Amino acid sequence: MALKQKVDGEIKSAMIAKDKVRLTALRAIKSMILLEETKGGFSGELSEDEEMKLLTKAAKQRKDSADIYQQQNRPDLLEVELAELAVIQEFLPKALTDEELTMAIQEIINITGAVSAKEMGKVIGAANKQLAGKADGKAIADKVKSLLNG
What we know:
By secondary structure, this protein is an all-alpha fold. It has 7 helices and no strands.
């Protein structure tokens, strides 16, 4: 089942349950999907990769906002962002642990044949493609850097 249909079903459930925060997050996801589908004259279904990129982007936006609200001591807004982030994460694959991330990146380094920090870009590009939705881009970059400089 496509993400859009899953989100539609969850929207109906949230409406029945009168869960406003969940409903807001689900509507934001649906809005992102619809915008992406109509962007540039494209009028078809999104691929699974494109859906994961959208969800990852939405999750990152919520994390960044939550960090800002925490720094500014705004618990009211922080709570909303974290609740929306939790809803978005339901649709993302389970995040890799640090150990799993290290193993996955080491395997990518072996495949690409990278041996020095000069080849970080090649490894990071391959890792971002392969691990989309499973690991944060910053975590991937940091891990590649430590493994190639290590």
